[in-house]
Amino acid sequence: RERALEAVELLPQAPRELAETIRSVPAAAQLCDLVASTMDITAAEKQEVLETFELVRRLDRVLEFLNERLRVMRLTKELGDATRGSLEKRQREALLREQLQTIRKELGEDEEGAADGEELRKQIEAAGMPEEVAEAARKELRRLERMPEAAAEHGMIRSYLDWLIELPWAKETEDRIDVVEARQVLDEDHFDLDKIKQRIIEYLAVRKLAPEGRSPILCFVGPPGVGKTSLGQSIARAMGRKFVRVSLGGVHDESEIRGHRRTYVGALPGNIIQAIRKAGTRNPVMMLDEMDKLGTGFHGDPSAALLEVLDPEQNGTFNDHYLEVDYDLSDVMFITTANSLNMPQPLLDRMEIIRLEGYTEDEKVEIAKRHLLPKVIESHSLKEGEWTVEDSALRDLVRYYTRESGVRSLEREIAKLARKAVREIELKKAT
Ligand code: ADP
Predict the structure, then answer these.
(1) Which atom of ligand 1 is found nearest the CA of 363?
(2) What is the reported pLDDT for 367?
(3) CA dist., res. 289 & res. 246, Å (int)
(4) What is the DSSP string of 303-332?
(5) In angstroms, rounded to a whole number, what is the distance separating the alpha carbons of residues 56 and 29?
């Protein structure tokens, strides 16, 4: 009877009367049957009890079953208590956190978090995002606000929101395409290259007449230092657009172009989106450098991602893995460069190749005189007439000090001379 009552105690769902009944049953035989019938033992086991006629043995058998049940019930209760303990701990923490919040509020320290949220909300609305993107941003913000600042994810969501807010969704420069002025800009920045300049002017003229039309992507191919990058800069300057460069040399992973998923620690958007943020406008001139140095690795083919970037059919909804939302690249003007034509055919098909051969010695001297020298003088803050280099010296530099098709080392050599000149001038001033 004692054991049976203990069992009833441990059963939260047992009816109250059961304990009463167990207490009040007078005869051992009846008690035995009552307990056996209410216990959850199998039918076969119940049958076994029924078939045991001798009372003492029957009582023993029922007691055995009862003890077995009790053992299980005690264990279950212990486990339940343990989980309840940890649950209570969590509830306690939540309660404490809430109290802390109240205390902070009392002290006037709370505003930070809330103000932060408010500020972010304003920034999201002001960023000019497309509605879907704004919705995604608001959702993340709500998650952020529900999260204690110490949580590991807090920083991750915060920097994600920063990325969304800082990307230029609506900000753009207005194109000004004036063919005459563009030619002037190109002439100012570059010596000779007449054919190439003409082609660029044609390209700009077509864009002006049909801004929505599909123009091919220009690809400047040639050895280093022949002016590929600086032509791109001039095009941007002539159109009034921002200029950004993305170097593709050594990129062999799709995620470098398209970003890492946010679940990675330290995940970032790919270099296309990074360049857009750097440009600060949604329609910069983006120069993709060293297309022919693109590698293939184990993690997806970067040239496939690049094809998508360059494809006017697809780049309106460019999907960066980190951003998760689409970004419209269709107003970006892409220009590419390469040292050789060693590129995947599908990429080559997208582009119009413009070759820049190297310069002759005479051309280099002219470039040095008209462009490199004035540039170096300016960047070293040398004054007009303070320092000059004779033509014959320039020729010697070209002939004996550099060995290249372009003029990159030539520019470096001139800069070296300028540094020596600056030192001498300063020394003379000092004595
Ligand atoms: P690339 O991108 O082809 O490697 P860059 O555009 O960086 O070469 O050119 C290297 C330097 O040479 C730049 O300072 C650029 O202005 C100068 N340069 C190259 N070609 C010319 C040119 N035809 N006229 C004036 N400067 C030039």
Answers:
(1) 23
(2) 92
(3) 6
(4) HHHHHHHH-TTTGGGEE-TTT-SEE--TT-
(5) 9
Q: Residue 139 in contact with residue 122, Cβ under 8 Å?
A: no
| Ligand 1 centroid, distance to 228 Cα (angstroms) | 6
Minimum CA distance residue for ligand 1 atom 24: 190
3-class state of residue 220 by DSSP: strand
Under-70 pLDDT residues of the chain? 104-115, 297-298
232 lines ligand 1 (CB under 6 A): no
What is the per-residue burial (b if ≥16 Cβ within 10 Å, else e) of 25-53? beeeeebbbbbbebbebeeeeeeebeebe
Ligand 1 neighbour 242 (Cβ under 6 A): no
Which residue in the block uniquely carries the two structure tokens 């999201």?
124
Partners of residue 246 on adjacent β-strands: 288
Task: Indicate whether residue 223 lines ligand 1 (CB < 6 A).
Answer: no
> Residue 16: what pLDDT?
79
pLDDT per residue over 97-150, tens digit each? 777 777 766 666 555 666 678 888 889 998 889 999 999 999 999 888 887 777
Distance 406 CA to ligand 1 centre (A): 7
Ligand 1 centroid, distance to 149 Cα (angstroms): 50
Check residue 232 and give its pLDDT. Answer: 93
pLDDT of residue 388: 86
The percent of residues in the chain predicted with pLDDT above 90, rounded, is 39
User: Ligand 1 within 6 A of 408 CB?
Assistant: yes
In short, whether 360's Cβ falls inside 6 Å of ligand 1 is no
* Residue entry with tokens 């892409």: 334
pLDDT tens figures, 266-290:
889 999 999 999 999 999 999 999 9
Tokens in use for 322? 């980190």
Kindly give the pairing relationship between strand 217-221 and strand 243-247: unpaired
Residue 392, burial from CB neighbour count under 10 angstroms (0-12, 13-18, 19+) = exposed
Residue 383 class from Cβ within 10 Å (0-12 exposed, 13-18 middle, 19+ buried)?
Answer: exposed
With a threshold of 0.90, does the pTM exceed it? no
Residue 264, SS3 per DSSP = coil
Residue type, 409: S
Q: How far is the CA of 329 from the centre of ligand 1 (A)?
A: 28
Cα separation, 409 vs 237, whole angstroms: 25
- Residue appearing with tokens 């009392």: 106
Q: How far is the CA of 240 from the centre of ligand 1 (A)?
A: 20
Mapped onto helix, strand or coil, the DSSP state of residue 261 is coil
Using CA atoms, how far residue 65 sits from 32, 90, 91, in Å, is 11, 38, 39
Residue 175's pLDDT is: 85
Distance 189 CA to ligand 1 centre (A): 9
